[in-house]
Specification:
Layout: H1 8-35, H2 39-53, H3 59-73, E1 74-75, E2 83-84, H4 95-101
Antiparallel strand pairs: 1-2
């Protein structure tokens, strides 16, 4: 919308809508931060991911894979207080890590 042609009331209404949208975005981000990581869903995800990436599924390979990926995508001292890293903070896993799975 071109604000040059709006009266004061319309500009105020537009700004209020923008502020409400921004507040909803902030509220949603805060809610996601409060929830943290759901242990069961994360475990299922890692198991499925490991099945698709590992040529042989033995317990050592599975644990190596899960620990490596988990440590690469999260930050925190314990799973109950861990948070996902921002996308920009996550680094590509090394070729040595990938080769170990094959």
């Amino acid at each position: 919308e071109d604000e040059r042609f709006m009266n004061t009331e319309e500009k105020t209404r537009l700004q209020r809508r923008r502020d409400q949208r921004e507040q909803k975005k902030r509220d949603k981000a805060e809610e996601l931060d409060r929830r943290g990581i759901d242990y069961e869903r994360l475990t299922e995800f890692f198991f499925d991911l490991c099945l698709s990436w590992c040529q042989f599924l033995d317990i050592e390979t599975f644990l190596f894979f899960i620990n490596g990926v988990y440590l690469n995508i999260t930050k925190g001292n314990h799973i109950s207080v861990s948070r996902f890293k921002e996308n920009s903070e996550i680094e590509v896993l090394s070729i040595e890590f990938i080769n170990h799975l094959l």
